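Quality-control log, excerpt.
Job 1 of 2 completed; input and output follow.
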Amino acid sequence: MFPWNKIDTVLLDMDGTLLDLHFDNHFWLKLVPQTLCQQRQIPQSEAQQLVESAYAKVFGTLEWYCLEYWQQELDLDILALHHTLVDRIQLRQDSMPFLSALARHSKRRILVTNAHPHSLALKLKHTDLASGLDEMLSSHTTGYPKEHPQFWRHLFNHFSLDPRRCLFIDDSEPILQAAKKAGVGYQLGIKNPDSQKPHKQFADFPAIDDYHHLLVSLEQAQLG
């Protein structure tokens, strides 16, 4: 699938790529509107419309991913709400075998996420994800989301990367596009970020629904 001899580093998104996106979708699309409905004594439909309108205003910006922003914007204790759903934070079943295989074949594994540092810390606490990674970078420490070219410049400089020898895996096609424009050599989409939803279709990038496909190609490349 990829020329593994030309790839030194695998850059990995977190939510929907290594973790099941069901937690985030349930949190932002169900729990937040329900809580607003109860707190403000407004109809569920009105709460739903309110949050969807608020989300749309900042989609693709750093605010979209910022817990403090939503705490202020919606007047909700967003982090406390996160803690009520920790049982839904789950690794994809195929993530750790893939991360372990990358380590066996001396590929550097760097998490690149738009998740807020508090959200990242919570997810690391409730999964074994950290044990499968070499480095991590939250876009909030750079001041730019992954959609922005400056994020990628910071990433390459911070970790002394040759972008041409990197593979980037993400469940968002616009973010894959941003990585490609920034010079990342190889991109791969994830078709099934949320285990409870239908598969996504990718128009411009190869995509998989199981890391086993990559595992096989990685093992074959080493044998070859």
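Job 2 of 2 completed; input and output follow.
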Amino acid sequence: MVICDLKDSARLEALHPLFKMAFDYLKSHNFLEMPLGKIEIKGDELFINNAESELRTKEAQQLEMHRRYIDIHVPLDGKEIIGWTPTADLDEADTTMPYDEAKDVAKSKGPVHTYFVVRPGQMVIDWPEDAHAPIIGEGKLRKAIVKIKL
């Protein structure tokens, strides 16, 4: 997992061939003025979900894991709390949704090892080994969720 300011993204561009394209798109568009929904940039290899979600409590939110995609979470109009646990630390008995290949997601009730706050202008990069519980807080949140195929 990487947590940083979006303005510092240049040093991360070497980590994946599509990171530069994703970071450039994030920095050059105002997602608050764009309609909600999926934005295709490079087919299923790189797309962005421009979303608005009702934030949940820590207790109500589950960890999610992906195998085929890297997630980049970018809150747009408020702070977001995200929980994190290495997938290697999760017990299969805590699985609440087995891996769904079509949706590229599995879910677990945890436990969550740590929580952190992400604010507009910042981003979180989640790799497949990062189980994460996003959209925690109060109220609603607009955010961009970048999906990059491994």
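Post-run check on job 2. DSSP finds one helix and twelve strands in the chain.
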